[in-house]
Amino acid sequence: MRFSIVIPNYNNAEWIDRCLDSIMKQTYKNYQVIVIDDCSTDNSVEIIEKYPVILFQAKEKAFNGGARNMGLSLATGDYILFLDSDDWFISCDFLKNLNDFIISNNEPDCIRLPFKIQYEGDKTLEVWLNDDNIKSLVDSCYVACWTKCVKRELVPLFPENTLMEDVVQHIKQCDNIKEVIPFNELCVMYNRNNSNSCSIEQNWHLQNNKWQSSMYRYCADLMDFTCKNEDCENHRKWRLEVVLNNIKEGKYIQ
Questions:
Q1: Is the pLDDT assigned to residue 37 strictly greater than 60?
Q2: Domain limits at 106?
Q3: Sign of the torsion angle spanned by Cα atoms 168, 97, 3, 106
Q4: What is the pTM of this model?
Q5: What is the C-alpha to C-alpha distance for residues 37 and 19, in angstroms, rounded to an integer?
Q6: Structural domain count of the chain
């Protein structure tokens, strides 16, 4: 198996079919799709069951980090791709081009994936990621796991039960990577039209202390490890200094 595509889902019945259709239409077929449903209350699962995917239903709310970890435990592909259930692959030849022009020739640790942001209506923004070294990769403001394709054995687990899982996992992953290659094709459509998106969920949880507790958990997670790579360690320390200063100034207290 070349690719394992891991998709956490929570109440994205409106978008999950578009997400999965974009995978099923790929001209390259050597992949597995793993969908982790994080206790949805809509008809997401009913839709997902119509597709030839591995579906795992969490028994308790795990949030994105926990759901992705469940997916990683089931993954057998050489490379891991993450995709959110309200996003989708732009081109039907994405996996083919990724395999034929990058992986088959180089087998790099990590490939950076440019993406397009879709806002309300037809407004879009292209984001090209040209990182070709570890320092530029770790220091990038685009740390979402779906912006990278990484060898399975180099993908660390995510922090769980938190809304702040991406940064810590990103730094740990960069500390495992020795080679990064940028891809020259827009790969993922990042959907900002979804009213149930994580950013909206974060705003809702702010009133219920989940966002605040996540920030303190984020601080603890940054303290709980050190990096072998100097650039990664410097970035970890910088992130920790920022969050500690914000806590000191009361920016996370509502």
A1: yes
A2: 3-195
A3: negative
A4: 0.94
A5: 14
A6: 1
